[in-house]
Amino acid sequence: MLRFTILFLSLLFASATVSAKKGESIFDRWSRTAEKTIEIHLNFDTLLANRKTEREMRGVVIDNGQAFGVDISVRGRYRRRTCVMPPIKLQFDKDLLRTAGLNTHNDYKLVTHCTVGERGQDALVREALIYELYRTLEPEASFRTQLLTINYVNTADGSTFTSYAILIEDTDELKDRLDRDNCKDCYNAPYATFTNIEKVTLFQYMIGNLDYSTKLGRNLKLMQDEQGRITAVPYDFDFSGLVSPEYGRLMHPDQQAMTDRILVWEFPHDPEFDRAADEMLLLETDLLQMVATYPELNSQSKREITRYLKSFYKELHRGKIGR
User: Fold this and answer.
1) How many CA atoms lie within 13 A of 206 on its CB side?
2) Quick one: signal sequence residues (predicted)?
3) Helix pair 274-282, 299-318: axis angle to 10 deg
4) 142-169 confidence digits (pLDDT tens)
């Protein structure tokens, strides 16, 4: 009888856990609204004083008058040390999500502005565009993101400021979509285990990003299925030539400028880009149109990004990638 009771309770708990993830997440709800604006209330004096720690602070997110309690902590490495506003993680209270009729995906990264002024905002918009470009190329194995307008309220003194920020979906949402696990120790994985590494590499070359590593798993989520096959999902594109932020730094000894493209390929044999190149050539017009119509980009940035992408496609058409 005791064994039956334990089994019943285990099944009941498992069912409740699964059902809690059904329905839409807060990310899903916000993604239906263009030009989404929310408020974040937090003691920013405490946040900045603890930028080098993992300490969690209590805050409140307000969306259309509805308040959500959140635990907020600083994340990242380079940006947390150097940016005026370090990147943060938002962990929503699950009970309040349930009360709002949402599922319990509650762990979201927020890419915040690093520098003040127009260039700082432009860098965020450019990075948000990159996420959208990659999602066009890889609709499933990519992070969903949303460019938010955030009204920050410092509870220490009541001061406020407003900025763009990029909301990145909960990694568990990505796992559910791909039906794969996030492999945190897949270092030095052999080439044969990857399903899409040529596509990832070619895209990173297109945007001029050297700040990633297949061997180390840096700025890549390595999603592994039951057979051990790995799908790489890139993120964190701020050091790319397409963004070229004020705080950027060169990532390779042969790199003379942020906009220089250098092919990052960490396997012993030469890459075979034919299939990935064909996919990207088919999307050339779509990607350039995305730049032309991206509403938050100013006209100068649109011209610069268009020229930068066209220079990549010129190489791609000639078969000169990395040469």
Assistant:
1) 27
2) 1-20
3) 140
4) 999 999 999 999 999 999 999 999 999 9
Q: Which residues contact 183 (CB under 8 A, 6 or more apart)?
A: 222, 223, 224, 230
- Which candidate, 219, 251, 216, 213, places its Cα nearest to that of 233? 219
181: left (phi over 0), alpha (psi -120 to 50) or beta: beta
Instruction: Write the pLDDT tens digit of every residue in 114-134.
Output: 999 999 999 999 999 999 999
Structure tokens that stand for 323 in this block:
């040469």
Q: Which amino acid, 224?
A: Q
Q: Which helix (H) or strand (E) holds 200?
A: helix 197-207
Euclidean distance between CA atoms 294 and 274, whole angstroms: 29
Mean pLDDT value across residues 24-45: 94
Q: Are 27 and 105 in contact (CB under 8 A)?
A: yes
Rounded CA separation 219/77 (Å)? 11
What are the φ/ψ torsions at residue 167 (nearest 5 degrees)? -90, 125
Q: What percent of the chain has pLDDT over 70?
A: 93
Phi first, then psi: give them for residue 3, nearest 5 degrees: -60, -40
**Tokens of residue 143, six digits:** 């992070």
Positions of E strands within the chain: 37-42, 57-63, 66-74, 88-92, 107-111, 145-154, 160-168, 181-182, 220-224, 230-234
Dist. CA 174–CA 166, nearest whole Å: 16
Tokens of 321: 């990638």
% of residues, the chain, pLDDT over 90: 85
Residues in the chain: 323
Query: What mean pLDDT comes out for the span 188-217?
Result: 97
Q: Taking the CA atoms of 149, 154, 158 and 160 in sequence, report the sign of the dihedral they define.
A: negative
